[in-house]
Write a structure and sequence with these properties.
The chain is mostly helical and about 170 residues long. It has a domain of about 90 residues: Orthogonal Bundle (Arc Repressor Mutant, subunit A), CATH 1.10.10. The protein has six helices and two strands, in the order H-H-H-H-E-E-H-H. Strand 1 and strand 2 form a beta hairpin. Helix 1 crosses helix 5 and helix 3 crosses helix 4. The two termini are about 40 Å apart. The N terminus is likely disordered.
Length: about 170
């Protein structure tokens, strides 16, 4: 085994493998760290939602509908960055629980609009304080400036990745 170099103890960027290719240890991987953080948020959210008999997948659709009540199923899938079949599955479950109602669009019968029921609207007052609490816990020990930077950085990374995905879908397969 080769003797460690002085800079091996505290990497500031991707490590180099002997072949010269970049290695990506989890503690230096943006994707790994964002997913790890997302999973921690999801576990905390699930703990709160379980008290209401709800699954975390419902939260994202409720949030979207609190902002755009009457959105189409396709629009809800786009907002939540899920496939349309996934959206339909979640919406069916929400419908069974009486959180939403679905209706054919009057102008385009192929589209289905989704509306919150009184119960779905009422959940906002119960769940938003819990979301604020989860965010407060996650932000503990961070300055307001660091939080603003984090939000700006995450938004930029999401936009960059969406652009890359679009670019890749436009490229012919090899």
């Amino acid at each position: 085994m080769a003797a460690p170099r002085p800079d091996d103890a505290a990497p500031t960027g991707p490590a180099r493998t002997p072949s010269g290719a970049d290695d990506l240890p989890p503690d230096r991987s943006l994707g790994f760290q964002v997913r790890r953080c997302h999973r921690a948020f999801d576990r905390a959210l699930n703990a709160h939602l379980a008290r209401e008999g709800l699954a975390s997948g419902f939260w994202y659709f409720l949030r979207a509908l609190w902002l755009e009540n009457g959105a189409t199923q396709r629009r809800l899938a786009q907002i939540n960055n899920v496939t349309e079949p996934t959206a339909v599955t979640v919406l069916r479950a929400m419908d069974r629980l009486g959180l939403i109602e679905r209706a054919r669009n009057a102008e385009d019968r192929r589209k289905v609009n989704v509306f919150l029921t009184a119960r779905g609207r009422a959940l906002k007052g119960e769940l938003m304080p819990r979301a604020h609490r989860i965010n407060e816990v996650a932000a503990r020990g961070l300055s307001p400036d660091d939080l603003e930077t984090c939000l700006r950085v995450l938004k930029t990374m999401s936009e960059n990745l969406a652009a890359e995905t679009a670019r890749m879908s436009d490229e012919p397969l090899r």
